[in-house]
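Notebook p. 47: complex prediction with heme C.
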Amino acid sequence: MSLLIKHKRSFTTYFVIIISIIVFTRCINNQNIKQKKTYEVNTIVTDTVNFNQFAGSAVCSKCHKDITNDYFHTAHFHTSQLSSLKSINGSFQGGKNNFIYDVGKVVSMKKERNSFYQVYYYKDKEVVRRRFDISVGSGIRGQTYLSWLDNHLIELPVSYFTQVHQWANSPGYPLSPIIFNRPVTARCLECHSTYAQTINYNPDIPPAFDGTQMILSVSCEKCHGPAAKHVAYETNHPKDSIGIFIVKNQNLPRQLSLDVCALCHSGRLQETKPPFQFTAGDNLSDFFEISDAAKKAGIMDVHGNQLGVLSASKCFQLSKTMTCITCHDPHKNEKGKTSVFSQRCISCHSDKHKNIAGVSNDLLRSNCIDCHMPLQESTSISFLLKKNAPPVSAVMRTHFITVYNDETKKFIERSSLKKKS
Ligand code: HEC
Ligand code: HEC
Ligand code: HEC
Ligand code: HEC
Ligand code: HEC
Ligand code: HEC
Ligand code: HEC
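Predicted complex, structure tokens below:
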């Protein structure tokens, strides 16, 4: 399985890209030389992060077979993929492949040989078509699709919304006009992929990307640092068993451990350095401005800001040790495994709970989650399904862990219904 995208390109395009990368690398080199990371036994020293430092997660399976096989089932692995019949969750079948914007205004999803298109028809006449090139989102809640337009990526107007199993207007898009040219930011790919080489990066204009130097999915190397050196070393020294040129996350201090996840799970951050330069083990605050306002906003918004929300909880504040990996195994898909997560609560809390009328002790022990981390509607992942209908929101777990009396009531009602039936 190759995770690296390869496109055919003419010699001249390569030439231009190589020149611009050299210029680009030089300008970053001057302003952004990374400090040595001193807390590790085996230091990774990189000046600027570039495509050649990555090995791709397929090769890790040679020596870390179980972890890699588990990882291939995670949402991180599926969060960006080349578009294909398999990676596009919506339907191309006649009758199910349209999104109707208004009378006479339809976007149709079309499969033609091995390519897929969103085609806008106005009064049955084709106006514009764009190809599905990259599918973003594992599909737990939904997917949006990106399309190459020269060296830019644009987000297509029609997305797929899993909750209702149908095509929908992309989040944040108006119903009119129908937009086929909204460029994707580097930040979008920074959260949904491992690496994308920008061309002549300038924060004030839409970024151009080199499609030959992109690594899709949130892969091993996003959390363990670029690993080409590790792979080369371990391949040539099969007798060494320590493992070098790699970030060992379990040795990171709390803040740096949180920073790895916070790159993508702390909501909107204002970048102060070019994209894709943060790697595991760095201080996030050297790359982004992390304002208190963003933290506060996080409490209101459950989308993408698990760290902001969690930091407001007593568990996080008073335990002094809690990180994301206290509860999450980053290599496994544990979605919906309520009793597994509840065991992780019990690792700090006693399994003896205050008595709650109508709920047995066994039930209490097996599901701390529904009462203390209830599902809430996301304020930012919401879809318009029809003109003049209110948007429908996706639901998310809140990471603000506390006592929710209404949820306890609902839990008691649900369990008494189950007992009766
Ligand atoms: C040729 C074999 C080989 C390949 C390929 C390889 N590794 Fe390793 N890796 C090792 C060995 C040997 C160790 C040290 C023993 C151990 O911890 O399993 C190690 C250690 C590690 C560790 C540290 C484990 C710890 O103790 O904390 C991480 C993380 C890691 N590798 C990630 C990766 C990733 C990511 C890839 C793919 C990009 C990869 N490795 C590819 C052989 C390999
Ligand atoms: C490069 C960005 C990035 C990093 C770094 C990252 N994540 Fe994620 N994570 C995502 C994205 C994007 C999704 C949504 C994936 C999807 O469903 O498409 C996600 C989803 C998840 C989920 C939900 C999976 C599910 O099955 O519902 C968990 C849990 C999670 N991440 C935990 C972590 C933890 C813990 C860390 C740090 C060790 C981490 N993530 C680091 C981007 C990232
Ligand atoms: C700050 C990081 C960040 C940025 C920027 C970001 N996302 Fe996300 N996105 C996430 C995380 C984290 C999730 C997982 C759900 C959650 O926490 O809200 C997610 C969820 C999604 C999902 C739903 C996946 C699923 O099946 O549940 C889609 C689709 C998506 N993002 C598309 C995009 C697109 C397209 C862009 C850019 C135009 C973008 N996102 C920008 C972090 C980000
Ligand atoms: C979302 C972030 C994330 C991703 C993706 C990820 N890891 Fe890890 N990995 C961690 C963290 C955090 C730890 C330390 C905590 C732990 O041991 O669970 C870790 C620990 C490890 C270890 C040492 C501990 C052990 O269980 O042996 C190895 C080896 C490893 N990872 C390899 C990989 C490989 C190979 C991949 C890709 C197939 C990968 N990781 C993907 C975050 C990640
Ligand atoms: C790393 C240890 C740790 C873990 C893991 C942990 N907590 Fe806590 N939690 C604490 C500490 C410390 C407090 C504050 C002291 C107390 O109330 O016991 C706390 C407080 C609470 C409170 C009271 C909150 C309030 O606002 O009054 C609830 C409820 C709670 N935890 C539930 C959970 C649940 C549910 C889980 C699992 C999803 C969990 N905790 C996981 C350490 C932890
Ligand atoms: C049916 C809903 C429900 C379930 C399930 C549940 N709790 Fe609670 N929990 C509550 C309520 C309600 C309170 C407040 C009780 C009170 O103050 O009288 C509470 C209080 C707490 C507190 C605050 C401590 C205290 O004594 O005030 C902690 C910690 C806690 N729960 C942890 C857990 C853990 C861990 C689990 C899973 C093993 C769990 N809860 C399962 C509803 C629930
Ligand atoms: C106290 C335990 C705990 C901690 C700490 C924790 N989580 Fe979670 N997280 C959960 C539980 C429980 C769920 C719900 C899992 C399920 O039912 O699938 C969850 C779900 C998620 C999801 C998916 C949200 C959804 O609704 O599908 C993401 C993303 C996530 N966590 C990221 C993180 C990140 C990032 C951190 C660190 C900032 C973190 N979590 C810390 C317990 C925790």
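Notes: Residues 1-46, 297-302 have pLDDT under 50 and may be disordered. Residues 298-420 form one domain.
Next step: compare against the earlier run before touching the bench.
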